[in-house]
């Protein structure tokens, strides 16, 4: 039986498909809509820009993995699942993480990671405000983890997602670890 996909997913798959033939920065919205057979207005109904599309695909997929696994498996296993997802699309994400501009996937995923860790710590600590030292640790750790994930993709994702997630868990600052792992 054929699986029906929603329009947003169709558009994302079009971009991913095109990324195998040219760099993402060379792919235009026009290329994306021609490849999947939709109109320009349909694209702009769902996304503001190509970067918005990239962010949506990454963040919605990561959020789905987290929602499925959070509180069901250890944190390190949940993070391994996010790396497995990225390795399934390693060609696409390796190219998507190259751009370092203000709309980059790197910057968006850094903010997303910070928000995730802040929410986890606030939930598990039962506090609405975090002290500056904790915010600094979250920011530093998130930045480093995103850099390591980007470098892992750039190198061809040769190391096992489980090994990478274990290394990230081992590197987490103690002040965060007690609320996350």
At a glance:
With 181 residues, this protein is an all-alpha fold. It is built from 10 helices and no strands.
Describe this structure in words.
- The protein is mainly alpha-helical.
- It has 2 domains: 1-47, Arc Repressor Mutant, subunit A (Orthogonal Bundle), CATH 1.10.10; 49-180, Tetracycline Repressor, domain 2.
- Helices cover 72% and strands 0% of the residues.
What is the element layout, followed by pairings?
Blueprint: H1 7-18, H2 29-36, H3 40-46, H4 50-69, H5 75-88, H6 90-96, H7 105-125, H8 132-154, H9 161-171, H10 174-180
Helix pairs in contact: 1-2, 4-5, 4-7, 5-9, 7-8
Structural class: mainly alpha
Shape: globular
Number of strands: 0
Q: How many angstroms separate the termini? A: 40 Å
**Name of the level-1 CATH class of the largest domain:** Mainly Alpha
Elements, N to C (H/E): HHHHHHHHHH
What oligomeric arrangement do these chains adopt?
single chain
Major sheet details: none
Uncertain regions: pLDDT < 50 for 5+ in a row? Answer: none
Overall helicity: over 70%
Number of individual domains: 2
Residue-averaged pLDDT, rounded? 92
CATH-derived architecture of the largest domain = Orthogonal Bundle
Write out the CATH superfamily name of the largest domain: Tetracycline Repressor, domain 2
Determine the CATH topology of the largest domain: Tetracycline Repressor, domain 2
Alpha plus pi helix count: 10
Radius of gyration, in Å, reads 17 Å
Strand content: under 5%
């Amino acid at each position: 039986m054929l699986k029906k996909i929603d329009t947003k997913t169709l558009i994302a798959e079009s971009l991913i498909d095109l990324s195998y033939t040219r760099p993402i920065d060379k792919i235009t919205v026009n290329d994306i809509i021609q490849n999947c057979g939709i109109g320009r207005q349909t694209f702009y109904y769902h996304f503001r820009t190509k970067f918005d599309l990239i962010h949506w695909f990454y963040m919605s997929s990561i959020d789905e993995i987290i929602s499925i696994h959070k509180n069901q498996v250890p944190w390190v296993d949940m993070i391994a699942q996010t790396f497995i997802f990225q390795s399934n699309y390693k060609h696409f994400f390796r190219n998507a993480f190259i751009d370092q501009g203000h709309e980059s996937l790197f910057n968006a995923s850094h903010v997303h990671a910070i928000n995730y860790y802040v929410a986890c710590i606030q939930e598990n600590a039962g506090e609405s405000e975090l002290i500056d030292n904790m915010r600094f640790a979250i920011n530093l750790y998130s930045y480093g983890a995103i850099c390591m994930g980007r470098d892992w993709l750039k190198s061809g994702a040769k190391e096992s997602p489980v090994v990478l997630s274990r290394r990230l868990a081992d590197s987490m600052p103690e002040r965060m670890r007690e609320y996350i792992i």
